[in-house]
TrEMBL record, chain A:
The keyword Membrane applies. It is a multi-pass membrane protein. Involved in the uptake of ammonium/ammonia (NH(4)(+)/NH(3)). It holds the Pfam family Ammonium_transp. The chain crosses the membrane at residues 6-27, 39-62, 94-115, 127-147, 179-199, 211-228, 240-261, 268-288, 294-314, 326-345, 365-390. This is Ammonium transporter. It is found in: Cell membrane. One of its GO terms (cellular component) is plasma membrane. It comes from the Bacteria.
Automatic annotation (TrEMBL), chain B:
This is Nitrogen regulatory protein P-II. GO terms for biological process: regulation of nitrogen utilization. The modification O-UMP-tyrosine is found at residue 51. Keywords: Nucleotide-binding, Phosphoprotein, Transcription, Transcription regulation. GO terms for molecular function: ATP binding; enzyme regulator activity. PANTHER family: NITROGEN REGULATORY PROTEIN P-II (PTHR30115), NITROGEN REGULATORY PROTEIN P-II HOMOLOG (PTHR30115:SF11). Homotrimer. InterPro entries: N-reg_PII, N-reg_PII-like_a/b, N-reg_PII/ATP_PRibTrfase_C, N-reg_PII_CS, N-reg_PII_urydylation_site. Belongs to the P(II) protein family.
Length: 448, 112
């Protein structure tokens, strides 16, 4: 065990957890004021459901002994982390429990990311049900494909086979361009189709109700993302340093590129564009941060930032109400970052692979494309199935009246902003309403 | 007594207020409102999508005045609020049956 590595991974785990409340602010600011709490609750709900499932079966399904062909780990191998608490349970140079915690945060945020596609209209209970089912059927297996590397003995023989994308295919996905972003983006597209458009979309202007919250969220995401990417080095080492710098510079370039597209196309560089560009850059560099140089990272960020700024208009052309652009940012950004590795990978970076532009030919490019398409297809189809399953059993969507009045009040009996406060507390209003209600009930009961 | 209601562009409020003060109008009520007139709303591009904005932000200014002051007050408001471009607003006058000052109980013109 290495104490420095362990300390960095404990820190990174907490950083990555903070991304999900950060996402709640990022998404919450983007919806209308009547649905901000529901939006934030979908992120918090994901922490609840996925956190528990991960410890029960998720870690085993993703990182347990492979059941065959690199498709899934044995889901009950470490049920409740059984057998992982002792001093000899190590993953690399860190205690396995630390790796369990780090990877738990990835599972949580991946599920939370999907919720942006169904803003303003998804009921909370069915969302929790979907979050649990999707983790079990989609995320845990895909995490196994992408993140579970073969365990080898001292002689280099495989003693603990892992997932097929990481090992047989050898696609590079350092921190989750496929497993997290393509995965969540494809699921978001599926759920936007399952739930249908919001009342009034696309005719009504549904501008973000609170852009400062969006900026706060983007800031927390970027902060946490240093744990997401540099923590994925699973150590305090050179790889962590390179990925950290790339996470900074690709994101900066992506934000500038997004704003440039907006300035040319719409006439104004917007705050929402800056925040979205930040996230698009973070998404793109997630798979690529170990494979490209800082100059390559600038290219990956700039290309993806511009691409995503254009891609968020696709929903109007195809008519799906992906409310907060989960598809335009996470699916398109994830595809972009994953595939661009095939062009910009440089063997001077920690992954030590050359892409097309560095004389490596198309070998890495096709591996990247196969990995990306496999996760996209699997996630989209299974998410459609699970979405319709929830829709046709317990129902997924709020009724029209609740949606128009505001889903916060209907689902959570709260509103984010009590602007009516000026009308309460006037003179003469001394009896508590609760007592008045209670006495009315008593009077009613004596009469009957 | 008359109630003069003016719908104006928000940035002309200070000019309107100054003009009315100069005429001796002692109070006014201002509210933020939204609406449209003959020019309708306008379109706006945001995040690559074009939207129709049907209701534009305006201010509603209300003043209570004596019958004799109506023409001068109308002229003052119109002159202060006019830019000559579409969307300058509208002013109308309605008769008022009774006015009471809450603090003193004065009625009619004394309460203005």
């Amino acid at each position: 065990m290495d104490t420095g590595d362990t300390a960095w991974l404990l820190t990174s785990s907490a950083l990555v957890l903070l991304m999900t409340p950060g996402l709640a602010f990022f998404y919450g600011g983007m919806v209308r004021s009547k649905s901000v709490l529901n939006m934030m609750m979908m992120s918090l709900g994901a922490i609840g459901v996925v956190g528990v499932l991960w410890v029960l079966v998720g870690y085993s399904a993703a990182f347990g002994t492979d059941v065959g062909a690199g498709l899934l780990g044995k889901p009950f191998e470490f049920f409740g982390l059984d057998g992982l608490l002792g001093k000899d349970a190590l993953t690399g140079t860190i205690p396995t429990t630390v790796f369990v915690a780090f990877q738990a945060m990835f599972a949580i945020i991946t599920v939370a990311l999907i919720s942006g596609a169904v803003a303003d209209r998804a009921r909370f209970g069915p969302w929790l049900l979907f979050a649990g089912l999707w983790s079990l059927v989609v995320y845990f297996p895909v995490a196994h494909w992408v993140f579970d590397f073969d365990g080898k003995d001292a002689a280099g023989n495989v003693v603990d086979p892992g997932g097929w994308i990481a090992n047989e295919l050898s696609a590079i996905d350092f921190a989750g361009g496929t497993a997290v972003h393509i995965n969540a983006g494809a699921a978001g597209l599926a759920l936007a189709i399952v739930l249908g458009r919001r009342v009034g979309w696309p005719k009504d202007r549904m501008k973000p109700h609170n852009l400062p919250l969006v900026v706060l969220g983007a800031g927390l995401l970027w902060f946490g993302w240093f744990g997401f990417n540099a923590g994925s080095a699973v150590g305090a080492n050179t790889t962590a340093g390179v990925t950290f710098v790339n996470t900074l510079v690709a994101t900066s370039a992506a934000m500038l590129a997004w704003l440039a597209v907006e300035r040319v196309r719409d006439g104004n560089a917007t705050t929402l564009g800056a925040a979205s560009g930040i996230v698009a850059g973070l998404v793109a560099i997630t798979p690529a941060c170990s494979a490209v140089t800082p100059l390559g990272a600038i290219a990956v960020g700039a290309i993806t930032g511009a691409l995503c700024a254009l891609a968020v208009s696709l929903k109007y052309r195809f008519g799906f109400d992906d409310s907060l652009d989960v598809v335009g940012v996470h699916l398109v950004g994830g595809l972009s970052g994953t595939v661009l590795i095939g062009f910009f990978a440089s063997d001077t970076a920690p992954a030590a692979v050359n892409g097309l532009f560095y004389g490596g030919g198309v070998d890495q490019l096709w591996r990247q494309a196969v990995g990306a398409v496999a996760v996209l297809g699997y996630s989209f189809v299974l998410s459609l199935v699970l979405g319709y399953l929830v829709k046709f059993t317990v129902g997924f969507r709020a009724d029209e009246e609740a949606e128009i009045a505001g889903i916060d009040e209907a689902e959570h009996a709260e509103t984010a902003y009590e602007f009516g406060g000026g009308l309460s507390g006037s003179r003469g209003n001394t009896k508590p309403n609760v007592a008045a209600g209670a006495s009315a009930v008593l009077e009613g009961s004596t009469k009957s | 007594m008359k109630l003069v209601t003016a719908i104006i562009k928000p940035f002309t409020l200070d000019d309107v207020k100054t003009s009315l003060e100069q005429l001796g109008v002692l109070g006014m009520t201002v509210s933020e409102v939204q609406g449209y007139g003959r020019q309708k709303g306008h379109t706006e591009v945001y995040r690559g999508a074009e939207y129709a904005v049907d209701f534009l932000p305006k201010l509603r200014v209300e003043v209570l005045i004596d019958d004799a002051a109506v023409d001068k007050v109308l002229d003052a408001i119109v002159e202060a609020a006019r830019t000559g471009k579409i969307g300058d607003g509208k002013v109308w006058v309605t008769p008022v049956e009774a006015v009471v000052r809450v603090r003193t109980g004065e009625r009619g013109s004394d309460a203005l």
